């Protein structure tokens, strides 16, 4: 056997922080508060917590169980683990292609967003982010910063512009991933996650102590800001009307699903580096709880209240990018100590992003090591080459962020649903809940409720199918139209198909290699 | 707000407390061993 020497996490806290770091991202601080405010806060939290119980936690437990099961038998990548779980099906390892392509493609555009956070943090630190109180100035700055108006715009000022931060982020990801699981990912997360909490708490304290900054507008205060985020609406009727909104249920389930990083192919790989007698039940539950703490307790208390206090109800709305990169710099301009709070805010977003992007590289590195026999260093180099090519593609087609949006839709949303469905099927119907619960019980310090077996086998797949169908009904038609009309979308999809073909070819080589190894005396 | 933020924070800090608590090996569950014993006993009961 020429498999690489087995790696294991060195500490339990390390794996919990690494998984939590993978899950905590921009969605926790920007997408969740935007959605909760849009659907009257309190009403939104009901479908949100139901989705956590029926979809988020069961899928997370399933991924941890399958991952550790595969890891203790020598496999750390989705193709290897799926092949192990579903021995009778020769196509099983090829289904695992999703567990490689999803994280690496998301990395391609996520590292670009990560570089915006680092760049904005640097601008605040050096005092260069001084655009006054005109909202239009921030919108134009962001458009120029990401090349929103013209393709390849960022390449015109290669070293003086935002690309320098992109190169820094790519370099940092490469160095950390190349250092390995313990000296790279685990060590970095042990430092980065507490720093992230520290930055978030400082920003939270600043927001909660703002009081009523403008005496001429007494209604714009902290209490009303929190009310804007969490209140149910004027009366009970609006609460029940909100609850009857099917779209809210779909968006709440989608938020839980994407926020927890289930269906990304990351957790299954991270869990595969645990030992046979390591606890996974409590660790997985803690990672989920950690993500919820960042999302509900920190993200939910900072973003919308801060925007409301200075900009009113009209300013506290918008998508993730608009809220994070257009609205918030304007908020910091109005805020006492805004420059430093701005630095802390974008630095915390950068930390949230890099702990996620790091995790996206590990599944494919594990595969290249165990499937093609590459050393970690060579696997990291090959993967960073593929990843950087994709990132430059995204940066080139920057007009309207078309490539980023197309990658995010087809891989960061569509394929995640597919991978989660495959994993739910494998766990519920192939591995079976009985064996899954036994795996979860092995070394457990927390007893997973037995009803989880029923939920993952019957309830989660139906829930997933409903959310997926509603999402597809709403969005896929429009995407097909844009495919017909926009050449950049067609190029993006061709690029994705090329990446898919490359990984399928590598899986074919890996399967042959595994068969040869197994046939050897 | 109190229920959501309090619930999420409480759940998280309860988990952190459980993780940081000194490990008690005797309380660790034994999934496969436990189940194999159960299966053995069940088989004995069914085929005495």
Question: Could you name the ranges of chain A where pLDDT drops below 50 across 5 or more consecutive residues?
Answer: none
- What's the oligomerization state? heterodimer
Number of domains as seen in the coordinates of chain A: 1
Question: Level of helix content of chain B?
Answer: over 70%
Q: Over the alpha carbons, how many angstroms does the gyration radius of chain B reach?
A: 19 Å
How far is the first residue's CA from the last residue's CA of chain A? 10 Å
What is the succession of H and E elements of chain A? HHHHHHHHHHHHHHHHHHHHH
CATH topological fold name of chain A? Amino acid/polyamine transporter I
Kindly report the average pLDDT value of chain B.
71
- How many DSSP H or I helices of chain B? 2
Q: How helix-rich are the residues of chain A, as a percent range? A: over 70%
Task: Give me the number of helical elements of chain A.
Answer: 21
Question: Any overview of this molecule?
Answer:
The complex is a heterodimer of chains A (521) and B (48). Chain A has 521 residues and is mostly helical. Chain A has one domain: Amino acid/polyamine transporter I, CATH 1.20.1740. Helix content of chain A is 77%, strand content 0%. Chain A has helices at residues 12-23, 26-38, 42-71, 78-85, 92-95, 98-125, 135-146, 163-178, 181-208, 222-230, 236-243, 246-259, 266-271, 281-315, 320-334, 338-372, 376-396, 402-431, 433-441, 451-485, 487-519. In chain A, helix 3 crosses helix 18 and helix 6 packs across helix 21 (487-519). With 48 residues, chain B is mainly α. Chain B has one domain (2-46). Chain B is 73% helix and 0% strand. Chain B has helices spanning 2-20, 31-46. Chain B starts with a helix and ends with a helix. The model of chain B has no long low-confidence stretch (mean pLDDT 71). At the A-B interface, helix 1, helix 3, helix 10, helix 14 and helix 19 of A face helix 1 and helix 2 of B.
């Amino acid at each position: 056997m020429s498999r690489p020497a087995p790696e294991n996490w060195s500490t339990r806290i390390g794996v919990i922080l690494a998984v939590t770091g993978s899950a905590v991202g921009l969605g926790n601080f920007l997408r969740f508060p935007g959605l909760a405010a849009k659907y009257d806060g309190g009403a939104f939290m009901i479908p949100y917590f139901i989705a956590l119980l029926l979809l988020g936690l069961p899928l997370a437990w399933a991924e941890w169980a399958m991952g550790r099961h595969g890891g203790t038998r020598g496999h750390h990548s989705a193709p290897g683990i799926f092949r192990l779980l579903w021995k009778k099906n020769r196509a099983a390892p090829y289904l695992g292609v999703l567990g490689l392509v999803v994280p690496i493609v998301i990395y391609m555009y996520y590292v670009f967003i990560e570089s915006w956070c680092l760049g904005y943090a640097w601008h605040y630190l050096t005092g260069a982010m001084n655009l006054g109180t005109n909202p239009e100035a921030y919108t134009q700055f962001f458009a120029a910063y990401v090349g929103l108006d013209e393709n390849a715009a960022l390449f015109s000022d290669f070293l003086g512009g935002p690309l320098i931060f992109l190169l820094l982020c790519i370099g940092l990801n490469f160095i950390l991933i190349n250092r390995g699981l313990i000296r790279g990912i685990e060590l970095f997360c042990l430092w980065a996650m507490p720093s992230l909490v520290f930055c978030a708490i400082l920003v939270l304290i600043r927001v909660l102590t703002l009081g009523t900054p403008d005496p001429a507008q007494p209604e714009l205060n902290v209490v009303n800001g929190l009310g804007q985020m969490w209140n149910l609406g004027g009366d009970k009727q609006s609460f029940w009307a909100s609850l009857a909104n099917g779209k809210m249920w779909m968006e709440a389930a989608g938020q839980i699903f994407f926020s927890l990083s289930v269906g990304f192919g990351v957790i299954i790989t991270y869990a595969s580096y645990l030992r046979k007698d390591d606890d996974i039940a409590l660790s997985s539950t803690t990672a989920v709880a950690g993500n919820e703490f960042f999302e509900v307790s920190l993200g939910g208390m900072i973003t919308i209240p801060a925007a409301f206090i200075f900009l009113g109800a009209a300013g506290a709305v918008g998508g993730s990018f608009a809220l994070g990169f257009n609205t918030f710099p304007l908020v910091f301009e109005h805020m006492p100590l805004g420059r430093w709070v701005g630095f802390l805010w974008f630095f915390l977003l950068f930390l949230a992003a890099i702990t996620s992007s790091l995790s996206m590289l590990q599944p494919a590195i594990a595969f290249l090591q165990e499937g093609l026999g590459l050393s970690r260093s060579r696997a990291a180099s090959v993967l960073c080459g593929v990843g950087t090519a994709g990132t430059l593609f995204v940066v080139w087609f920057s007009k309207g962020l078309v490539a980023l949006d197309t990658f995010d839709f087809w891989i960061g949303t569509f394929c995640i649903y597919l991978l989660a469905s495959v994993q739910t099927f494998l766990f519920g119907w192939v591995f079976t809940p009985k064996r899954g619960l036994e795996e979860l019980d092995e070394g457990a310090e927390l007893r997973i409720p037995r009803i989880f077996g029923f939920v993952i086998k019957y309830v989660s797949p139906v829930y997933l199918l409903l959310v997926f169908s509603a999402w597809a009904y709403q969005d896929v038609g429009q995407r097909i139209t844009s495919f017909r009309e926009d050449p950049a979308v067609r190029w993006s999809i061709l690029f994705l198909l090329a990446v898919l073909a490359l990984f399928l070819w590598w899986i074919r080589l890996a399967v042959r290699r595994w068969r040869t190894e197994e046939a050897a005396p | 707000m109190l229920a959501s933020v309090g619930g999420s924070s409480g759940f998280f800090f309860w988990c952190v407390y459980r993780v940081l608590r000194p490990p008690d090996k005797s309380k660790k569950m034994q999934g496969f061993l436990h189940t194999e014993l159960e299966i053995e006993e069940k088989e004995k009961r069914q085929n005495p």
